[in-house]
Amino acid sequence: MKQKVAVELGMDFTLKQFPEDIHRAQLLAEIERFNADPKVHGILVQLPLPAHLDERSITQAVSIQKDVDGFHVSNVGKLALRGETPLFVPCTPQACMELLKRSGVQIAGKHAVVIGRSNIVGHPVAELLLKANATVTVCHSQTQNIADVVRTGDIVVAAIGQPAFVRGDWLKPGAVVIDVGINTSPHPEKPGAMVLKGDVNFEEALPVVSAITPVPGGVGPMTIAMLMQNTVASAQRSVSSSLPAMHLLP
Amino acid sequence: MKQKVAVELGMDFTLKQFPEDIHRAQLLAEIERFNADPKVHGILVQLPLPAHLDERSITQAVSIQKDVDGFHVSNVGKLALRGETPLFVPCTPQACMELLKRSGVQIAGKHAVVIGRSNIVGHPVAELLLKANATVTVCHSQTQNIADVVRTGDIVVAAIGQPAFVRGDWLKPGAVVIDVGINTSPHPEKPGAMVLKGDVNFEEALPVVSAITPVPGGVGPMTIAMLMQNTVASAQRSVSSSLPAMHLLP
Ligand SMILES: NC(=O)C1=CN([C@@H]2O[C@H](COP(=O)(O)OP(=O)(O)OC[C@H]3O[C@@H](n4cnc5c(N)ncnc54)[C@H](OP(=O)(O)O)[C@@H]3O)[C@@H](O)[C@H]2O)C=CC1
Ligand SMILES: NC(=O)C1=CN([C@@H]2O[C@H](COP(=O)(O)OP(=O)(O)OC[C@H]3O[C@@H](n4cnc5c(N)ncnc54)[C@H](OP(=O)(O)O)[C@@H]3O)[C@@H](O)[C@H]2O)C=CC1
């Protein structure tokens, strides 16, 4: 899907597949080669990695200039800091914000409840909502009375990984719901077949909320759009910066 | 105060004071000198800086190995990421956690409300509470119905900078309150004299809460203790690591 969209947009796209048992050093050398290649503006390590490869050290090997996933520790730090702007923001969280923005949802001052705190979705989306001046609550597997907590949310982002986990009566009437979950779940009628389900019980939510993103659709396609946007921004940056580094003068 | 405690603990302490109009390049050179000095294990840039100096670029110049304040972007990023441990955690947030721990307060599963989202207190304390498995809400100046939000907190951390801002009836009965605020406010009886006040109305809170930190006392002294702890940890690290850098083998 990423490849299809990139090619449609006229980007050069290289899908490098490696043997399941690739050596760490070899994979790092491949990443280093892309880091050094001036024709490459974005590098994405498709997760999950095989168990013998340490996810963090591999993703951290991607040059911060080409980290279109926004997973580099320096980009994460800058996302957390006021007064700093990361070079890249993770795509799925950015997609959530883009959907809110496009739907004209007011964020500042509203109470946003994020369910999930993963490095790639829950945590960074909470950072973005906070930067957009929402009051932000983060829930996770150890949250007590989760239904009551979710019910305080004017905006609810569900990034849990459990099909139809969030029930209709957990939602404040009129809430705006972003359903990040992509779960395969058995088809209700066709035995053996599977369907895609979000983390929110869509049928129950629909009469309660003022807006909700569908699964499939919604966050998924927008995530890919954000990846493309990050890559284009990276290419623009690389072209416009003829200087190797900038130093502020005193 | 930092100097007094450090000297009592037998640490070498150097207070470098610079002229108000010091050049940025000169200050950076001084920091570089401390970065390079193997006898120095902790460097702290006392904030606020004069207006002509950019706070972020100065604090970021401190070596990540000696960043006892925990303000370096890489330490901030690691604090935000699951599966990562920063070299240093900012001292005041760490002090809040230490106070909760020493008082035997259960954090996991509890609802923690943090008022304030600054880089040095509110934001990192929210990260620490989340890492300790609290459900975490962050409030700030744009939060609507703040009293109602604060009232959901089993644990409330106030880091606002407004004397006695949090009222007694904003608190859930039995809540545990950490008052980070240090505000000078006119003495109620002696005209012209000043008193120190926290961000919480202590007298109103006392009958409602199960525990509250006093101001002065409480978070302030514990913050200095955490700074000393960070410095000692840094010295230990520097002694025990004879290798200049460590690389994981595949
Ligand atoms: N649309 C898109 O483009 C994308 C969709 N996704 C989808 O989003 C979902 C989340 O992904 P990801 O963040 O990577 O998942 P993770 O498994 O990394 O994180 C799941 C989070 O949900 C929390 N959680 C799990 N069970 C519960 C529960 N019973 N109650 C409350 N919280 C719970 C976990 O809590 P704890 O931290 O305590 O373990 C954790 O923080 C998945 O369905 C995934 O497929 C992911 C990426 C992109
Ligand atoms: N005990 C100790 O060792 C230390 C104590 N302190 C004390 O802690 C307090 C906070 O310090 P610091 O974090 O540096 O301060 P900052 O001024 O950097 O941040 C204050 C935070 O409080 C929020 N805030 C301000 N007014 C309101 C309001 N009316 N309602 C809700 N939120 C509000 C601000 O919101 P917004 O982001 O929207 O502007 C901001 O996030 C101060 O009193 C300071 O003296 C600080 C450091 C160490």
Topology diagram in text:
The structure is a homodimer of 250-residue chains.
Chain A: H1 2-8, H2 24-36, H3 55-60, H4 73-80, H5 91-102, E1 111-115, H6 122-131, E2 135-139, H7 146-150, E3 155-158, E4 176-179, E5 183-186, E6 194-197, H8 202-205, E7 211-212, H9 219-240
Helix pairs in contact in A: 5-6, 5-9
The structure holds NADPH dihydro-nicotinamide-adenine-dinucleotide phosphate (2 copies).
3D structure, described in words:
2 copies of one chain form a homodimer. The first copy, chain A, has 250 residues and is an alpha/beta fold. Chain A has 9 helices and 7 strands, in the order H-H-H-H-H-E-H-E-H-E-E-E-E-H-E-H. A 5-stranded parallel sheet of chain A has the order 2-1-3-4-7. A two-stranded antiparallel ribbon of chain A has the order 5-6. In chain A, helix 5 packs across helix 6 and helix 5 packs across helix 9. Strand 2 of chain A pairs antiparallel with strand 2 of chain B, so a sheet runs across the interface. One NADPH dihydro-nicotinamide-adenine-dinucleotide phosphate binds next to helix 9 of chain A.
